[in-house]
Write a structure and sequence with these properties.
mainly alpha
């Protein structure tokens, strides 16, 4: 399980290698992409000071779900078309898991849009919509890491690591001559 999580952490090295590019992408995506939320919210507050009713109406409009669908679609498309990527089983596995997760989030966001179209709204649905939007933002932020395949190991690197693991296992097996009770093997 430790290896699984360390494999999933590898793409994050793109953020540490190029933090300024990531920050620019994130700020533009969040502030411009969510302008349909924060700009009307601020303008409505400045004009007549009402927030709560507007916030409920905003959730009914489905704008956050639309934003989430667009940002996830952008991230998934980038992940799928980046050149020289996905050449080893680890990267392919991460992309597969991420692709399925992204599609599930898109379907959930489309469901929220459908409920919005039928004017179905409740406080619980607003909380669910907010949580799905936050998960979508986190997933899209992770998908950003796939724009630069420099974090990926080559097939040769992965093969070398696996051979080392087999050698280490062989050395451990030859060193072990008794079980935990002291019985000879």
């Amino acid at each position: 399980m430790k290896k699984f999580f360390s494999d999933f952490a590898q793409p994050l090295s793109v953020i540490w290698k190029k933090p300024h590019q990531y920050l620019v992408w994130w700020l533009v995506a969040m502030f411009v992409g969510l302008a349909s939320f924060w700009l009307p919210f601020i303008l409505r507050y400045l004009v007549d000071g009402t927030q709560m009713q507007f916030t409920r109406e905003y959730f009914k409009s489905g704008s956050m779900a639309s934003f989430s669908i667009v940002i996830l679609a952008d991230g998934l498309a980038t992940c799928l078309v980046v050149a020289n990527s996905g050449r080893n089983h680890v990267t392919a596995g991460i992309k597969g898991i991420l692709g399925v997760t992204t599609l599930i989030l898109v379907v959930l966001n489309v469901g929220i849009l459908a409920l919005s179209a039928f004017n179905i709204s409740s406080h619980g649905l607003h909380i669910v919509q907010l949580l799905i939007t936050l998960l979508s933002i986190l997933t899209a932020s992770y998908l950003y890491c796939f724009r630069d395949p420099s974090w990926e190991k080559t097939v040769g690197d992965v093969q070398e690591e696996e051979n080392e693991e087999v050698d280490n296992l062989g050395r451990t097996a030859t060193q072990t001559s008794a079980d935990e009770s002291g019985n000879k093997l």
